[in-house]
Amino acid sequence: MKVVRLFAAVLAGAAATAALGGCGGSGPAAPSQPFGTPPPPAPGVHAWAAGEVGTLLVTADGGADWRRQQFFLSERGVDVAFTDARDGWLITDAGAMLTTTDGGAAWKVVGKVGLQMKAIAATDAQHAWVVASSGGAAEPGKPVLLRTSDGGKTWKRAAGAFGDAQFADVAFADARHGVLVALDRVWVTHDGGRRWQLSRQQGMSVLTSACSGDASTFWVAGWGTLDGAPFVLVTRDGGSSWRRLSIDVRAPSAGALQAGQLAVAGARGPAAATRLWLTCPAGVLASTDAGQTWTLRKVAAGQPVAIAAVDDQHLLATTSGQPVLATSDGGTTWLAWGTAGFLKQQLTAVAAAAAPAGQ
Fold it and tell me: The whole model's pTM is what?
């Protein structure tokens, strides 16, 4: 009987090998990396990507390899923020707020609210801000902004005349200075989000994301509803005034350049030649001169969605499908990582940080 079973197992193994195109088979081999050459290792470049139920994708080598990291809730991550390689924040589609102090090896639920989460920003292990809506996805309700200054032990609602705003993103440069983005409006705060002042209204536009340079410098991305053309708003005086920068790049097709998420890196300050990146369906738009000129960079696979910069050379991005993107040359070349069937759902957010020297 054992001999028969062994013979049957050998036949089954041979059939499986042939089906996969192995030795003796006629079919093509299933590639371990279906999106081409994966990114080269960049040790010390950490990133966390959210979007799947109960797990994050994590890399410690700049996107050359990813693994799963569980946060043990049957909920999907909506957004993630890390202030360094250890301290991080996560919000879920069921209204949970979580924190980690060990790079995501263990997560702690620090809040649970009946809100539709949109985005989270954090400046350290104590200060974080969450934008949300009181309604569901099909019927948005009132805008809500929550803030904590004690690591999530307590959460307070920010005061502000937000009206019917549909919040899209929030960004903070430090524990006091931040911007809040809605569909066509931008607010600023100088007291940690206790009070917000309407700073800019951009008609006939969809504002999608924000990022910070320093306490005075903020960037907001959007696109025009008439032509779909992307643009960037910049303030260098804390929101007292804004300048609209057009992105003069020819669209390969209608809607291909609609602005997604914005990332910034490089020297800081009013006179800085800041490097910017902006996702769009056609690839990643890049600027090396503070948004004066832009270049469209094609990616190896997928349509970029979320993006995060570690420094002016290392960035990571998620896509609308399976690939996860990375660059180690400032965005000139984007390579894709992915294995067949690895992801179950789209990754909608990514955060990145560099490990301290010597780690």
Answer: 0.89
